[in-house]
Write a structure and sequence with these properties.
The complex is a heterodimer of chains A (423) and B (316). Chain A has 423 residues and is an alpha/beta fold. Chain A folds into two domains: 249 residues, 3-Layer(aba) Sandwich (Rossmann fold), CATH 3.40.50.970; 153 residues, Rossmann fold (3-Layer(aba) Sandwich). Helix content of chain A is 40%, strand content 18%. Chain A is built from 13 helices and 19 strands. A seven-stranded mixed β-sheet of chain A has the order 5-4-6-7-9-8-15, sandwiched between helices. In chain A, strand 17, helix 12 and strand 18 form a beta-alpha-beta unit. Chain B has one domain: Thiamin diphosphate (ThDP)-binding fold, Pyr/PP domains (Rossmann fold, 3-Layer(aba) Sandwich), CATH 3.40.50.970. Chain B has an eight-stranded mixed β-sheet with strand order 2-1-3-4-6-5-7-8, with helices on both faces. The chains are: A alpha/beta (423), B alpha/beta (316). The interface between A and B is large, with 45 and 48 residues. Strand 11 of chain A pairs parallel with strand 2 of chain B.
């Protein structure tokens, strides 16, 4: 790796990258964070996001980073430090997982409430108890009401791309919201894959210079961050925040478009695979999306089943209209949630159902809880799910339980069984 | 740059960056402690404030009492908010992005004793260990005043609080106050001090020393609370005088973790009993069955004073 240094400027040295690098998802995050020339990173180690922080620390040690790296004593402090730094006025990011994310929840709400465009790389992992270091989406789901823009990467390339785009989206003057970029723990974060990076200059120019809004370090205009509001103003603040979050979908689309023009890699709020003539579809997140595409291809080839896959690239703001549109012409849908639903149906089931309830066509829809604590989602599991929803499609109504646990050892577990509903 | 204030008139008429318009109780010592910090320097200030009385009384939208950059995140993380802002300052200075790069900036965090001794203890410890260039000021009123007078780990033995009320079989709080100054000195912070608003010259001198110090500084400020200590609102300075003169709140400083200097020696030491007697929170101690607590407290104060004097003498 050759080093280049721009003359006359005090700045980090540049890294020359290959056209195709072999990176895991954590390295993809770390490289994108390096290229963004972040002003302050405050971070704390937790599996499986730790290598993102290691990678960043090594870049710093080798002179490729010119920002501050604050090694705080907890994840709560990591996000607190990020909020202090972002309010001071500059580009800020961190990374975490699972329990660490749970610990920073309080401050996530404060980051979004203060409209600070912090970028958080969230390497998804299960939440204890029982303690588990492997990938599921419990942490991602825990953060879904925190007022952050949330996007999901299904592989290392997307983790890199979305991390770069995350800065540009959150820092847009019409958005000014924090952005959470998700990737699956281990399956994505620790699996070396081919990644096509941008050069340091192209990546940085794509994101652009940080644009200050009410920085604390502008002493000509002192600012008060984190004031108190009660019943007189709190509601108006929260309403404006929701409006900003909902309106961010336009900026997200335009950043996706700009990125496509630059790289020829296309991103959409809702990704559709094999959906042109699909009769049955799986809706999923994370690395399961690629597994489901593989299973759908096999079923099309060997069984003649018109199977497709839909994935919500953008989780917040939830793309209701695009989800309904993507699933308009299918007969049956399986929503796959990789998080213990805590006494109800899975998040994807609830939100996809809500989107479809407003549409003309209402396909039969059911819910699968799978992969908790890193349990593998096999091709056989996915094909079984497709077989289920083919039955639902043929019957034109729900003939399977509304919610099932897929890949669970021991007796089958399901809730809201059809017989009970019919009674 | 320190502002030179020579006398009480100058002290009271100095230009305010902490506005007089706020919602703190009449007689609350917080406002004196905070105002003098903002008044003792001409440097730019970034202030982080923990949740608590000071915060809820000075930044109720759409109003603010702060003519300085100010941030409140949560109850526990004022030290970390200051850390983050200070880190950003360092980066922007290095990258040449500061608007006024030649004017010094000071980072100050305020927290009550709940925010400092209890919920924010880890955050403060982390920020001091990392060596951020900031001054943390604990407004120590020995109680969770903002939430209605509950005990904190700064509450003195014998105080009646809403969670350790004195009752038929209890004399109130059983624990001794945590020695936060010693703990912060043990972090190796370059400067640690205890101040009281009644000794304003001593307080301002320590503030100026704190702001001139590179690295983390901890200041424990006695903040008499009319509401929870239960004394008349016009007696704040009198009570504070009794606090320092009884040596319940000795005034001293510790440099680089070891060099201890006593900065105020009362001419006439007031008995602890007298200090307790003027506060409603200790009223029950004067019942016969509780008198032993007063004696124990006097003993503890004597021992602490002895220790401070010996440490000063030996220089450790």
């Amino acid at each position: 790796m050759a080093r280049k240094k721009e003359e006359g400027k005090v700045m980090a040295e540049k890294l020359e990258l290959q056209d195709i690098e072999v990176w895991d998802g954590n390295m993809a995050f770390a490289q994108a964070m390096r290229q963004a020339q972040i002003d302050v990173v405050a971070a704390y180690p937790i599996t499986p996001s730790t290598p993102t922080v290691h990678g960043y620390a090594k870049f710093l040690a080798d002179g490729y980073i010119d920002g501050e790296f604050v090694l705080v004593e907890s994840e709560h402090a990591a996000m607190s430090g990020c909020v202090g730094a972002a309010a001071a006025g500059g580009r800020v990011a961190t990374a975490t997982s699972s329990q660490g994310f749970a610990l920073m929840i309080e401050v996530l709400y404060q980051a979004s409430g203060m409209r600070l465009p912090i970028v958080l790389g969230l390497v998804n992992r299960a939440l204890a108890s029982p303690l588990n270091v492997n990938g599921d989406h419990s942490d991602m789901y825990l953060g879904r009401d925190a007022g952050w823009i949330m996007v999901d990467a299904f592989n290392a390339q997307e983790a890199y791309d979305l991390m770069l785009m995350g800065f540009k989206i959150g820092e847009d003057l019409s958005v000014r919201l924090p952005v959470m970029v998700n990737q699956d723990g281990f399956i994505t974060s620790h699996t070396a894959q081919n990644v096509k990076p941008l050069s340091d200059d192209v990546a940085y120019n794509f994101i652009g210079e940080y644009k200050e809004v009410n920085p604390m370090l502008d002493f000509c205009k002192p600012v008060t961050y984190g004031a108190q509001t009660e019943e007189d103003w709190h509601f108006e603040f929260k309403a404006r925040q929701q409006k900003a979050l909902m309106d961010s979908s336009k900026v997200i689309s335009s950043v996706f478009e700009e990125f496509k023009n630059l790289t020829n890699r296309e991103y959409k709020a809702v990704e559709s695979y094999l959906m042109d003539d699909a009769k049955v579809a799986i809706v999923a997140l994370g690395s399961t999306v690629e597994s489901a595409i593989q299973a759908a291809k096999d079923l099309r080839k060997n069984k003649g089943i018109k199977a497709g896959v839909v994935a919500t690239r953008v989780i917040r703001p939830f793309p209701f209209e695009e989800v309904a549109e993507a699933l308009q012409n299918v007969e049956a849908i399986a929503t796959l949630d990789r998080s213990a639903p805590g006494g109800t149906l899975g998040m994807l089931f609830n939100e996809v159902s809500a989107a479809l309830y407003q549409s003309k066509n209402r396909p039969v829809i059911n819910n699968y809880i799978y992969g908790l604590g890193g349990r593998d989602m096999t091709q056989a599991d996915i094909k079984e799910i497709y077989a289920d929803i083919v039955k639902n499609a043929e019957a034109g109504k729900l003939v399977t339980p509304l919610q099932q646990f897929s890949g669970l050892r021991g007796p089958k577990l399901s809730f809201f069984n059809q017989e009970q509903i019919d009674e | 740059m320190s502002k030179i204030i020579k006398n009480l008139k100058q002290f009271s008429t100095s230009n305010d960056r902490f506005e007089g318009a706020h919602l703190l109780c009449p007689g609350c010592a917080h406002s004196i402690i905070v105002r003098e910090l903002l008044n003792c320097t001409d440097d730019n200030l970034v202030i982080a404030n923990a949740t608590g009385c000071l915060e809820v009384c000075t930044a109720v939208y759409p109003h603010t009492s702060w003519d300085a950059s100010w941030i409140h995140i949560g109850f526990e993380n004022a030290a970390t908010a200051a850390s983050g802002a200070e880190a950003m300052y360092k980066t922007l200075k290095r990258k040449g992005r500061l608007k006024d790069p030649n004017k010094p900036v000071k980072f100050v965090a305020f927290g009550g004793d709940g925010a400092t001794y209890d919920i924010g203890f880890q955050f403060l410890s982390g920020a001091v260990e990392r060596g951020h260039d900031f001054t943390y000021i604990c407004l120590d009123n020995e109680v969770y005043a903002n939430t209605g007078g509950q005990r904190s780990s700064s509450t003195p033995r014998g105080a009646s609080t809403t969670t350790t009320p004195a009752g038929r079989v209890s004399y109130g709080n059983k624990k001794y106050k945590k020695d936060m100054v010693a703990i912060m000195a043990a972090h190796g912070a370059p400067y640690v001090a205890q101040v009281a608003p009644n000794k304003w010259k001593d307080m301002v001198k320590k503030y100026q020393k704190a702001l001139a110090t590179k690295g983390p500084v901890y200041i424990n400020a006695m903040s008499a609370c009319t509401t929870e200590w239960k004394f008349p609102a016009d007696k704040t300075i009198d009570i504070s005088d009794m606090g320092t003169d009884s040596l319940v709140f000795p005034l001293y400083e510790i440099e680089n973790g070891t060099k201890l200097t006593i900065t105020y020696r009362p001419k006439n030491i007031v008995p602890v009993r007298d200090y307790l007697g003027v506060q409603g929170r200790f009223k029950h101690l004067f019942k016969k069955e509780n008198e032993h607590v007063i004696e124990e407290m006097q003993k503890a104060v004597n021992e602490k004073w002895e220790l401070l004097q010996r440490r000063e003498e030996v220089g450790v």
